[in-house]
Amino acid sequence: MRALRRVRQTWGSVWCRAWEGNEHQRTAQRAEGTRNLHICSALVYRQNGAHADVLRLERMALPPVDKHCVRLKILAAPVNPADINMLQGTYPIRPTFPAVGGNEGVGEVIEVGSDVTSLSPGDWAIPVGAGFGTWRTEAVCDASDIIKVPKDISLLGAATIGVNPCTAYRMLHDFQPLRPGDTVIQNGANSAVGQAVIQIAAALGVKTICIIRDRYDIELEWNCCRRAALFCHEILETESILLLAQEVPRPKLGLNCVGGPYKKLNKASQSIPKQKALIFKNIHLRGFWLTMWKRDNRKDPAKLQAMVASLCSLLQSGRLSLPRCVQVPFGDYRHALDMTQCAHQRKHVLLM
């Protein structure tokens, strides 16, 4: 009996020491996991509605960086009308809740997974598609969800190159073959897309006829676009058109953003040409949505990379200047969203 008690005590002591050792290991692992856990601040919404009602600044734990993922420190993220529409639930893209706001921006790669070869720590990158959730200080994503951009362009240039300049680029390249000396006509030409159209077309040797509203601040918005011919709505009459036709070739491409095919956010109804104009003059009407283009070409990343590289090259050479932006500290996000909903405001960019 004494021998049996000694055996039980011995095994009990061994089991106790083993349990204490395992518990110490588990505690160390939990501590290590806590040290490796990254926390970010993010603008989160859990239902659709007005941004003042549904958007909240919260702290979020980031998932671990898997072998095919990267951790990104967001540097700057614009506030666009489409972002407001997504919050309201009126945009074609519906995120899974809870969702982080923001579709556009630029970040710096902080950490890469073991299988990632396209990116390195220190690189700048922008989101490939919409719904990324850029209104946060950090993010972990698949490496295929972002694309590298050069660091020798401006921070605001990198943050705002992924939507409006890309839209302008695709419309000038995808619908009608354009050669040097050709002409494009557009309305709403003082918009961000319109200004990009002017400059990208000029780089292609293509002339632009630009129709703008007669506003008191119009001159300020056109400092970088003086190569274009400017015509306000009020003076674009029959006589002016005839005089214009003597100076430049007949336009091969027309871009309508005032409630038209590529201005998807405007709810105004628009008339279209009569049937005989469509038939006998071979006029084609096409809509364009950059998000759909990116979805359709997701399996061919070279197209997106070539477009972004071309636009970055124009930025580097000074042939493309993006509209001036208002820089807003991340904590003042409500002001940026409020101003984005006001008419005739510059793009507001959140700085993290």
UniProtKB/TrEMBL annotation:
Subcellular location(s) of the protein: Mitochondrion
Gene Ontology CC: mitochondrion
An example Gene Ontology molecular-function term: enoyl-[acyl-carrier-protein] reductase (NADPH) activity
Top class in the EC scheme: oxidoreductase
Domain Enoyl reductase (ER): 50-351
GO BP terms: fatty acid biosynthetic process
EC number(s) stated in the UniProt entry for this protein: 1.3.1.104
Gene3D superfamilies: Medium-chain alcohol dehydrogenases, catalytic domain, NAD(P)-binding Rossmann-like Domain
Alphabetical list of InterPro entries matching this protein: ADH-like_N, ER, GroES-like_sf, Mito_Enoyl-ACP_Reductase, NAD(P)-bd_dom_sf
Keywords tagged on the record: Fatty acid biosynthesis, Fatty acid metabolism, Lipid biosynthesis, Lipid metabolism, Mitochondrion, NADP, Oxidoreductase, Transit peptide
Record CDD domains: ETR
Pfam family, one: ADH_N
Main location: mitochondrion
PANTHER family linked: ENOYL-[ACYL-CARRIER-PROTEIN] REDUCTASE, MITOCHONDRIAL, ENOYL-[ACYL-CARRIER-PROTEIN] REDUCTASE, MITOCHONDRIAL-LIKE
Family: Belongs to the zinc-containing alcohol dehydrogenase family. Quinone oxidoreductase subfamily.
Protein name as catalogued: Enoyl-[acyl-carrier-protein] reductase, mitochondrial
Organism this protein belongs to: Paramormyrops kingsleyae
